[in-house]
């Protein structure tokens, strides 16, 4: 059996002060899990990963010389963007697809997936943020990249991109302003999802310690091929570079979460 890493760290320049995250970058499974009982076609769908994100983050990392952490396992195995006590951490059904390999599941296997995949990924994120903070002398600016489907339950989504956030507006306001400035795209503000999710990656690594951050969602049909990835990298890179020059986006400043009081 080949060794399997649950994460990949792109080791760019930590002094940049910018860190990119891609929780759902890949649709892979260790070979012992087979396909979790699903048809192979399921792993080309959004239920398995965020389409286009891996290539977009790799390109942005190279353009910005920014470190990045990529999740290397499918969200169907366990979702790194959920807290350990979230009932949707290991899904039994996702967008109509029943996942036989996830139900029934023993407590032992649940803990095994936490220990082999979820926790190592989050340790890699924490260590990368710490290296950036030490090297740059301030809080890193964290940008998490995701993608969303062009339609949901038969209803088209008009947004080209979205910015999701909880209650720390520092990076969000200027990011939305810069995305909207050219006037050629529709940008969702906490649409089509709300960014306040207790225990998720942004809550755990940014909200709780007071690190400036934002989560960017790009519509999947816009980054599903090389041309789309290149276009969106060219759009996002100068925006992120400009945000990264702001001193106020490199300070620790804890904001209350809309999900309730911190317990970490």
From TrEMBL:
Keywords: Hydrolase. SUPFAM superfamilies: Zn-dependent exopeptidases (SSF53187). The keyword Methyltransferase does not apply. Pfam families: FGase. InterPro entries: N-FG_amidohydro, UCP029730. One of its GO terms (molecular function) is hydrolase activity. The keyword Phosphoprotein does not apply. This is N-formylglutamate amidohydrolase.
